[in-house]
Write a structure and sequence with these properties.
- The protein is α/β, with parallel strands linked by helices.
- The chain is built from 15 helices and 10 strands.
- Helix content is 38%, strand content 16%.
- α11 (282-288) crosses α13.
- The longest helix is centred in the last third of the chain and has 20 residues, at 260-279.
């Protein structure tokens, strides 16, 4: 009887321990922590997409919107990716562009580097190089091709440029100087850029112009290219070097100070577009170019692609400034009396380089 009681008690004890959560090994179950267990955190919700900053509109002034120098403003959708909208303001010549920039009629401009060097206001700053060559050509009218076989034959002739003080006018003056010709011995007249409307009319015997008019005249056969400064050999024939600071993105110190974000976004756009141009063949660049660039060639992709290939050498590879070539340009302007002969070239005084340095 007593043995039965002991067995029953033992059995009850084992069952009681099992009911209290004893382990299979028979060791006592761990005691609950004295502190209440914190409830599990709710699953993290998906992160909301980061909102793009609002698009900034900038007014950019220059000549002839469809000119190839403007490709870096509109190429490949880069501006949209940077959140910048370019409102393009077209002017007849570089002098008008500079005036509009100083007056605040435009925020930034694409114009010649020497405009900044020669400016007496001290307000202009270079932000990004765009082209390292004129991208222009001296074209002789078919009616005068038998009498104009060389640059020296321009003496006593009438030569057209887009406007007095424009890029084509400067190229003509440099070409004459490179060949030892007094500019006063050539009559220079403003005729606009479209060589199709000028050549064959008898108004001029030759003219200096830009694309797409060079290629259009070349295709039509209404003129003969005498000096082709779209290509390295033609650039070197004028400047003794193949890299000449030409078109740059510029702004005023006031706008840069007050709108640094907009400036950075536009510099990003120009620099990345230039890298795209440098890395790709003409056909791929053409495919990424807005249609208005091709309107002047009536959508002729073959002609436009050839035009791009002919002009690739003039574009900067990434927007950076070359101190050596900038110094050469300064010295040339000194020799011509356009800048003070006793003033040393001070690149930091003309270039605001931090925006190019921040391009990612």
């Amino acid at each position: 009887m007593r043995r039965t009681v002991y067995v029953s008690l033992a059995l009850a004890l084992v069952l009681g321990l099992a009911g209290c959560g004893g382990s299979k090994s028979g060791t006592p179950a761990p005691q609950p922590d004295s502190k209440a267990k914190a409830p599990e955190a709710a699953p993290a919700q998906a992160q909301a997409p980061v909102a793009k900053p609002p698009t900034i509109t900038v007014k950019v002034g220059s000549t002839e919107k469809a000119a190839l120098k403007n490709l870096p403003l509109f190429l490949n959708g880069v501006a949209e990716q940077e959140g910048i909208k370019v409102e393009y303001v077209e002017f007849k010549g570089g002098a008008e562009v500079s005036k509009a920039l100083l007056n605040g009629d435009v925020d930034l401009a694409l114009t010649t580097v020497d405009t900044v060097f020669k400016d007496k206001s001290g307000e202009f700053r270079l932000l990004s190089m765009v082209t390292n060559g004129p991208g222009q050509a001296l074209i002789v009218d078919n009616q005068a091709k038998d009498s104009i076989k060389s640059v020296k034959d321009l003496v006593g002739k009438t030569v057209g440029v887009s406007s007095i003080g424009s890029g084509p006018h400067k190229t003509l003056l440099d070409l004459l100087a490179a060949n030892g010709i007094d500019s006063k011995s050539v009559q220079v007249v403003p005729v606009g850029l479209d060589a199709r409307e000028v050549l064959g009319t008898g108004r001029v015997q030759a003219m200096v112009t830009i694309e797409p008019y060079i290629s259009l005249v070349e295709k039509a056969g209404t003129g003969v290219i005498l000096v082709d400064a779209r290509k390295p050999d033609g650039i070197k024939a004028i400047y003794k070097t193949v890299e000449v600071p030409w078109i740059a993105l510029i702004s005023t110190t006031g706008y840069i100070k007050d709108h640094g974000d907009a400036v950075q976004r536009l510099v990003n756009t120009v620099s990345k577009s230039l890298q795209f141009i440098a890395a790709n063949p003409g056909a791929k660049i053409s495919a990424q170019a807005p249609s208005f660039f091709k309107d002047e060639v009536k959508g002729d992709e073959t002609l436009f692609t050839k035009m791009l290939e002919d002009n690739k050498a003039t574009f900067s590879a990434n927007g950076q400034f070359n101190p050596d070539s900038m110094g050469i340009l300064w010295k040339r302007l000194q020799d011509g009396g356009s800048v003070p002969k006793d003033k040393q070239f001070d690149m930091p005084g003309f270039v605001d380089a931090k925006y190019l340095q921040n391009v990612k």
